[in-house]
Each structure stands twice: as structure tokens, then as C-alpha cells.
Amino acid sequence: MTAAVRVVELRGKRIEITDAMRTAILDEMPEIGWIADASLRAGVTDAWAAAVASSSFTRIGDMKPSGNYDSTPLRHGTQADHIRSVTRMAVKIAEEMAGLFPEFRYDRDILIAGSLCHDIGKVWEFDPENVARWKANPRAVGMPSLRHPGYGIHICLTMGLPEAVAHMAAAHSGEGELLVRSLENTILHWADYTFWRVVEAGGQFADSDPWLKGG
Ligand SMILES: [Fe+2]
Q1: pLDDT digit of tens for each residue in the chain (215 aa)?
Q2: Ligand 1: centre distance to CA 39 (Å)
Q3: Do the bridges between strand 6-10 and strand 13-17 make them parallel or antiparallel, or are there none, so unpaired?
Q4: 6-201 topology per CATH
Q5: Which pLDDT value is given to residue 3?
Q6: φ, ψ for residue 4 (rounded to 5)?
Q7: Beta bridge partners of 8
Q8: β-bridge mates for residue 9, sequence order
Q9: Left if phi > 0, otherwise alpha if psi is -120 to 50, otherwise beta: which for 113?
Q10: What is the rounded distance in angstroms from the CA atom of residue 81 to the CA atom of residue 54?
Q11: CA 60 / ligand 1 centre spacing (Å)
Q12: Residue 140 Cα, ligand 1 centroid: separation in angstroms?
């Protein structure tokens, strides 16, 4: 792993990425280790370290475990569990199709990196300080001002991640209906939607939402 401290800037905030921060991210997201390319692996780790440091969260698991800031949370598990599960499902889908179709080609590293980063912008959309500010005056900057795909673009491009990964953060959700998704993003999109739909059908959403005032 990179030993050096990397200094980046997200929304004007100077962030020093240290090895302790990287270790914490790798502890929460061990699937980062599945990425074969060392520079992409380091890039995903640093992007998450910077994303968390740019927010009021101390770890990925501090975020509400839901699809949107105002949607129902999971009964059990964290936001990191969601992202990791979607990544594992995306890999399984790709492996199934590759086993079936001899000419099926996909970029495994991009699939893993993009899946692990798909919800990275939730550090903005789910930040309680932002949510409180937006609720106080929804007509000031919007509510939310940016959904997580929007802020995910900012993080991915600022951190120098590949265009293919930024595309997956940008267009895994409804925003992707306005463009043609890459193969890897198509796999991610359906893995992500499968996760939430099966959670719903399987009764794994919480009965109430303690994350929202009055929930
Ligand atoms: Fe997701």
C-alpha cells in the first residue's frame, strides 16, 4: 500500500489521507482487495478515505443504511454492508454470464471498483448537517442540492479515478436513464436494484426510521 500522505481538496476542504485512514477503509471494505490493479486499488481506497474525511462521518458505516437520504433504512446492517453486497452480487452476475457465453467480456477491476464507489456520494446526500440545512429551506439550494450520483462524480473525478468508474457513480441510478450505461454499470445497476427490491420483498426494511426526525 502507498506509504505517503496524499493531500487532496474536496469542496475547498484540505484533506490529508494517511495510512491509518486507508487501513480503516480497507477494514470496512475488504473487497477493495479484489481489485487486481494496484493503482486502481489505491485510488478506490483514497477516494473513500477522502470522501469520509470530507463529511461529518467518521466511517462508512456511520451513514444511514438506505438507498436515499429519506428512504427507509435496513432492519439490520450498515451502508457498507449494502455497498459490499452489491459489489459481490455484481461479480457473481458477471461470472455467471462469462461462464455461459464464451465471448462475454467484461472488465473485472472496473466492475469491482465502480461497484465499491457507486454510492460514494452518499457522504454528501446523507450528511445530517446537509439534510438539516436543506430541510430548513428547501428552495435555497434544493433538497437535496445534489443526489449521491452527483456528488459521486465530484469525488471520482477529483480523486483521479477512471472515467468508467465515475460513470458508474454518476449513472447507476435514475440518472442513467438519460444515457447508455456501460456493460459494467448495467451489471451494477441491476445488482443495486436487486438488493433494494429483495430487501423490500423479504421484509428487511426497518419498521420505522429513527434517522429522520419524527421517524
Ligand atoms: Fe447502492
Answers
A1: 556 999 999 988 999 999 999 999 999 999 999 999 999 999 999 999 999 999 999 999 999 999 999 999 999 999 999 999 999 999 999 999 999 999 999 999 999 999 999 999 999 999 999 999 999 999 999 999 999 999 999 999 999 999 999 999 999 999 999 999 999 999 999 999 999 999 999 999 999 998 876 43
A2: 24
A3: antiparallel
A4: Hypothetical protein af1432 (1.10.3210)
A5: 62
A6: -75, 150
A7: 15
A8: 14
A9: alpha
A10: 21
A11: 13
A12: 27
Grid cell listed for 64? 444511514
DSSP letters, 68-101, are STTSPPBSS--HHHHHHHHHHHHHHHHHHHHHH-
Task: Give the residue extent of every domain in the chain.
Answer: 6-201
Q: Which residues pair with 205 in a beta bridge?
A: 74
* Ligand 1: centre distance to CA 3 (Å): 30
| Residues 65, 77 contacting (CB under 8 angstroms) | yes
Alpha-helix residue ranges (DSSP H) falling in 29-162: 38-53, 79-100, 108-117, 122-125, 128-136, 138-141, 148-158
What cell does 131 get?
439534510
pLDDT of residue 177: 97
The cell for 154 is 465530484
pTM over the 0.90 mark? yes
Look at residues 84, 103, 107 and name the one whose alpha carbon lies nearest to residue 37. Answer: 107
Q: CA-CA distance, 132 to 91, in Å (whole number)? A: 37
Q: Which residues contact residue 178 at a Cβ distance below 8 angstroms, ignoring those fewer than 6 apart?
A: 171
Residue 11 alpha carbon to ligand 1 centre in Å: 23
